């Protein structure tokens, strides 16, 4: 069985060896591969799973994809605790060590520029959800009001009453949505002022994420480690007095959204 090289991230030389127990994708130990003063963190993976043809099939297997993503993130998290890594796209693989070094040589300037820009910084994620939000395309959205509030919804005595109640529900939803959007705008401005950079991502699809409520803001913020506590405190202050709105904070992460490397293609194993 041929072993390919799975690359997790590129970083500067570590001041200490990787944890001996640090395992990556397929349970393989992660190791450092040095080239021109940069380090690629790699592990060996079987070509039966990671060849170009095999990956096309594997990426449709949700259990395999979830396990691989977790293992990939486990290595990135370990690196983030001790250095500033530049995470590469999941399932970035190369034929052997020499092919990894060729990739590093071609992209050396971009790696060094990104490392200089991101040194000592981490990414924090902030999401805002409108709770009890009606789903996309879910009718007029008002028929289940009684079920959500625990009380019986008033019955329309006539067609005119029904239309009036429906207009009232629509107006109430529109007002709630306006308030949530305004809250998200103000919070994003406040957090952006505390961060060195920010990125707005597309709202999450609740059917894919499994998160309750309607995602209004999905943003990433680049923050110096030394100011992370201040940033977290600012987010926490918003969580206590915002009924109907849920704020979620995640991180600190490696600066995925700010590397400038996302557009680069993954390596070819052949």
What does this structure look like?
The strands form two sheets. Strands 1, 2, 3, 4 and 5 form a five-stranded antiparallel sheet that branches. The chain has 270 residues and is an alpha+beta fold. The chain has nine helices and nine strands. 39% of the residues lie in helices and 23% in strands.
Write the H/E string, N to C: EEEHHHEEHHEHHEHEHE
Q: Report the strand count.
A: 9
Mean pLDDT: 83
**Shape designation:** globular
Q: Helicity, in percent?
A: 25-40%
Radius of gyration: 24 Å
Structural class: alpha+beta
Question: N- to C-terminal separation?
Answer: 14 Å
Largest sheet properties: 5 strands, antiparallel
> Strand portion, in percent?
15-25%
Taking pLDDT < 50 over at least 5 consecutive residues as the criterion, the unreliable ranges are 135-149, 263-267
Give the count of helical stretches.
9
Number of domains: 2
């Amino acid at each position: 069985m041929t072993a390919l090289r799975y690359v997790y991230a590129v970083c500067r030389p570590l001041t200490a060896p990787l944890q001996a127990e640090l395992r990556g994708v397929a349970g393989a130990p992660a190791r450092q591969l040095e080239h021109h003063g940069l380090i690629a963190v790699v592990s060996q993976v079987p070509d039966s799973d990671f060849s170009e043809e095999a990956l096309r099939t594997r990426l449709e297997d949700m259990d395999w994809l979830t396990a691989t993503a977790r293992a990939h993130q486990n290595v990135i998290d370990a690196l983030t605790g001790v250095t500033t890594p530049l995470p590469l796209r999941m399932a970035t693989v190369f034929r052997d060590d020499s092919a990894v070094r060729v990739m590093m040589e071609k992209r050396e300037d971009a790696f060094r520029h990104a490392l200089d820009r991101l040194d000592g910084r981490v990414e924090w994620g902030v999401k805002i959800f409108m709770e009890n939000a009606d789903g996309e395309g879910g009718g007029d959205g008002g028929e289940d009001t009684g079920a959500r509030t625990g009380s019986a919804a008033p019955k329309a005595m006539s067609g005119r009453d029904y239309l009036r109640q429906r207009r009232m529900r629509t107006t109430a939803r529109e007002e709630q949505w306006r308030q949530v959007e305004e809250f998200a705008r103000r919070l994003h401005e406040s957090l952006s002022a505390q961060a060195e950079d920010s990125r707005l991502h597309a709202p999450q699809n609740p059917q894919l994420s499994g998160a309750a409520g309607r995602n209004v803001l999905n943003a990433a913020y680049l923050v110096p480690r030394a100011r992370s506590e201040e940033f977290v405190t600012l987010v926490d202050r918003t969580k206590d007095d915002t009924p109907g709105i849920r704020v979620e904070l995640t991180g600190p992460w490696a600066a995925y959204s700010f590397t400038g490397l996302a557009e680069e293609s993954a390596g070819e194993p052949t």
